[in-house]
NAD-dependent epimerase/dehydratase domain-containing protein (Eleusine coracana subsp. coracana), 888 residues
Amino acid sequence: MRMAHLITNCSFSASPAVKAPTRSTSYCCNFVQLQNSKPSNLFNKSCSMKQRKSYVIRASAAVQGQTQTPLTGSQEASAHSSSKPKKVMVIGGDGYCGWATALHLSNKGYEVAIVDNLVRRLYDHQLGLDSLTPITSIQNRVRRWKALTGKTIQLYVGDICDFEFLSEAFKSFEPDAAVHFGEQRSAPYSMIDRSRAVYTQHNNVIGTLNVLFAIKEYSEECHLVKLGTMGEYGTPNIDIEEGFITITHNGRTDTLPYPKQASSFYHLSKVHDSHNIAFTCKAWGIRATDLNQGVVYGLKTDETAMHEELSNRFDYDAVFGTALNRFCVQAAVGHPLTVYGKGGQVCEIIHLKFVLCNLFIIKLAIANPAKPGEFRVFNQFTEQFSVNELAKLVTAAGAKLGLDVQTKSVPNPRVEAEEHYYNAKHTKLIELGLVPHLLSGLAT
Amino acid sequence: MRMAHLITNCSFSASPAVKAPTRSTSYCCNFVQLQNSKPSNLFNKSCSMKQRKSYVIRASAAVQGQTQTPLTGSQEASAHSSSKPKKVMVIGGDGYCGWATALHLSNKGYEVAIVDNLVRRLYDHQLGLDSLTPITSIQNRVRRWKALTGKTIQLYVGDICDFEFLSEAFKSFEPDAAVHFGEQRSAPYSMIDRSRAVYTQHNNVIGTLNVLFAIKEYSEECHLVKLGTMGEYGTPNIDIEEGFITITHNGRTDTLPYPKQASSFYHLSKVHDSHNIAFTCKAWGIRATDLNQGVVYGLKTDETAMHEELSNRFDYDAVFGTALNRFCVQAAVGHPLTVYGKGGQVCEIIHLKFVLCNLFIIKLAIANPAKPGEFRVFNQFTEQFSVNELAKLVTAAGAKLGLDVQTKSVPNPRVEAEEHYYNAKHTKLIELGLVPHLLSGLAT
């Protein structure tokens, strides 16, 4: 209970670690509205009635090499129109982000399939870890969802590095979109030893290659939403753009992929994925969105809160626990917050609910399909703070609950700059119609 | 015989495909001098007698983040001094570049070990291909070398993706430097099907990861010379720098890795390698040189010409044959030269003998060790021509031999720009002391 209150009470305002440009760097997806509002209230810039319910999302940002055209369509109607519901394959759908995403998409009327080999649960067994929140089996999870909502989530249990298995899943389900969370996603895990470094890069890179080949061979129109990471960029001494940067050099100009400087074998695997995906967009006409996601925090979404059997996992250990989640647990149990080194490292954060922005991206992809070969990159985070600032916020929230939260600096196990310039853009999603909204009040 | 004469007769002069900067873009390593001259004639900028023979190599170029200090040392003496000869592990030493390199290093007094799983020969069996020049087994090759020169080349036959095997090789041999050619190096091979795309990326990326871990665990001072490829850069509309580019963006400046845009799963695997290596330099203090090599052509080196059993392989097929080699064979047999598409694609080329410039780099690495964590990148090619220009050169050379060489355009099986701006720098090796020398007269 304490930890849930800690997350609720953290009041995040715009106080980035470094001098920011004049535009606000603090915003949140208007997620409450996305969930609760009737579509006609939601996107109100202009209306054109196409189907029973419809709206227009202002979409003025140009994606790389493309001119974005205004999106027309409907929200739930896109899933419940007279045509069949759109199908979304959630790869890694048993995990922290994937499970929340799968439920939310199903709740919004999409036909959902989860593809997962459940290896995330094996890591826990191997390392002697466990979720803080009890979670049931994936089979019980989808059964409970069906019992509560009448909605079916299909389940394909297997390894996407096994192309025979993945082929069968694609041929059977025929996805319109695929959201790919199915990777070993812990930097510390990838750095434990050679075996896990190699496993991480093999699993992640080959898994993504297989997904690309499956799309090419079985579902050419399928839009891939791939989870990348802000960590691909490293900590350059210049502003971080969204995926691409325009460079003028020796009198000539080009817009090129933003240089990558990853700081773990896990982050490197995401860099490799991004390069592979960009190539297949060009070579095969694959449509893909690379979401360079910030560090996810938070405990519940509306769907996972519906029943204890739908509960999401919550990790707080040193391998899988993300910074803010870990600090909240440490504060709740009276353990000093463990700040690595000087604590000046900048963290871009995003609440679990806002991870569900990928719903927006999927709608965008389905209602306004990307042109073949279009490779979009979004930096998906809501705010950026230094680790020290996160610690202070948790300390302040803890104080409101009567907790005396301490902080201590521990030797940094990572190879990273502990104080650095950091200014990353993350405006494309807003420009495509997501409405900024302050974080406070939306936590938990 | 015709083909050998074709390569000899091609007269390459500075006529790049695109408008070049005023500095000469055509130079060759002064390789004849490196082989024939006494050291005292070779590097004549200044002399300081350190050992029996010594020289100073002018080294004014700064590598990324480092200030290069003048090199003092000796050439053969570095290998024949009173201390033990330096050890170089040639990974992929049974292949086109690797075999020539292994012999040359051995001839120059280094203690050499070849590490190879011989899978290159298996590709031939699988695809029904073969070397144009008969080659004997690796065991016969090293036996013949021993018989002729008295020099031993150690042989470790196994897969570098097998870390147990690689560990034993490192622990047994204790290399001072490792030259890593041991990858699946054909773009067309990597694009045949999913299985070979996956194989290429797994083999190349995991193999290199294992080499990095082996250096870290067993030979911390070992300098890695890694064969990259110019193809990592793609065809940007700006000048291509050597590994890094200084960008000024929104009022701030940083020198960052040059953006990569590879055009095959093979080229992508090299991009992944470069990112992985750069990270380990920073994280572990690995010393590495990434050689972004151009397209290799040519048939013989002085060592491979010593005996038929030392003969190097020569590939002219569509999978492993490189452009200029293929054109020479096509001309010799009366087959039209097969130009892909419009033929405007720019090719950076390097004669096989000049691949042996890595000897220079190894000497540089051993005599003037890179600082821990130093990641050097060189663009290693001698000239750049469009495919059309290569075809014209071969046609002209053929005419001198009385051959009526035709050219035809065939549909381009590759996804690549067929006409594009291209201006790549390749000056760092010259600035470090390699003396430019025209190519004509050195071929074959």
